[in-house]
Amino acid sequence: MRVRYFPVMALSALLALGGCRSMDVSLSDYRQEVPLDAAPRLPTEADLERLDRARVVLFEAEDGDLEKARRAQAATTLTLAIEELLGANGVEVVDRGIAADLGRELQLAEVRGVPGYDGPALANYAVKPTITQAEYATEYVPPTKFYDKRGKAYYIPESFRHRAGVNISLRVYEIPSLRPVKTLNGQGRNTVSSGDRGSRDMGVSMIRAATKAALGDVRAELLNLFAPRGYVIGKRMKGNDSILRVSIGSAQGLVPGNRVVIFTEQENINPITRKTSYDRIPVVGGTVSGIVTANEAWIVPEDEAKARRVRLGDQIEVVHKDSPRGNLFLP
């Protein structure tokens, strides 16, 4: 059996459509329980028991022996920024105390091909960050003089343009297999103009800012690797508006304001092999409301016409998008 994920364009369209309804809803306003038709393939009890918050071991970032990165303590900046980003989006960062033991196991897996980790099962992912480039330079911009159409002169004094650039690599591994899941490569840039040549403190500050910008470059990809996934288990109505009850909550990392997509599965039989697979088709996007308990939550759908096609047992998945203005901590 195989599950196919498609179509990408449909998913993008769902996420691009912003809903007008507020996520501030009250169950006292949505009194009408509405029965849902069952999806063709309902989750089993084992499926429901497997729902859990992603737990991540975060290694201390390495600076790649880059002088400018070391001087700015950019590795520490990167480690703290990743930790804050994951924590703000419902991912549990476990005690770094096991990182040293896990790091040795990981080194064996990478260098000698020795698979697996035999330590305590405290996490299901590991993230290994590395700074691969860190640059800072100042460029002198000479004064300029120009005239408008009336012959009036304008003078722009000399200035200095300061540029910082940082590239990072985040390698994500599955635990306990230590199987590489994905490598994310981010780039961050920071540019400032001033009337002087700047200072060492300015260079340090700009490299740190560029480090955070590099993390922002891969923010959505990183969070989507650890996004909570659950199932639709109920529906309530208020007039023509609905809210959907789902099988995950704060214990699984769901946060009010998270953007979600609800998928349904459609059976597909290969005409040659007669083998069955399932196409995973997006139905409707939505937002996690303010009603989030430990193991359940209510979703506000963005399109009521599409929400009418949601069935009992359809899958829900948090989907992060690139955040505007480089804000790392938007849902």
How does this structure look, described?
This protein is an alpha+beta fold and 331 residues long. It folds into two domains: 2-52 and 228-326, Beta Barrel (Thrombin, subunit H); 55-225, Double Stranded RNA Binding Domain. It is built from eight helices and 15 strands. α4 runs parallel beside α6 (200-217). It is globular and about 75 Å long. It starts with a strand and ends in a 13-residue tail after the last strand.
Give the tags.
331 residues, 5-stranded mixed β-sheet, alpha+beta, Thrombin, subunit H, 15 strands, Double Stranded RNA Binding Domain, 37% strand, 2 domains
Distance between the termini: 33 Å
Backbone CA Rg: 25 Å
CATH fold-type name of the largest domain? Double Stranded RNA Binding Domain
Shape: globular
Tally the structural domains: 2
How much β-strand is present in the residues? 35-45%
The SSE string, one letter per element, is EHEHEHHEHEEEEEHHEEEEEHE
Count of helical regions: 8
Class per helix and strand makeup: alpha+beta
Give the total of beta strands.
Answer: 15
Would you state the CATH class of the largest domain?
Alpha Beta
| CATH homologous superfamily placement of the largest domain | Lipoprotein like domain
Task: Look at the structure and give the mean pLDDT.
Answer: 85
- CATH architecture group name of the largest domain: 2-Layer Sandwich
Give the uncertain stretches in residue-range form: 1-12, 15-19, 324-331
**Percentage of residues in helical conformation:** 10-25%
Describe the strand arrangement of the main beta sheet, using strand numbers.
10-11-14-13-12-15
- Biggest sheet: strands, sense, closure? 6 strands, antiparallel, barrel
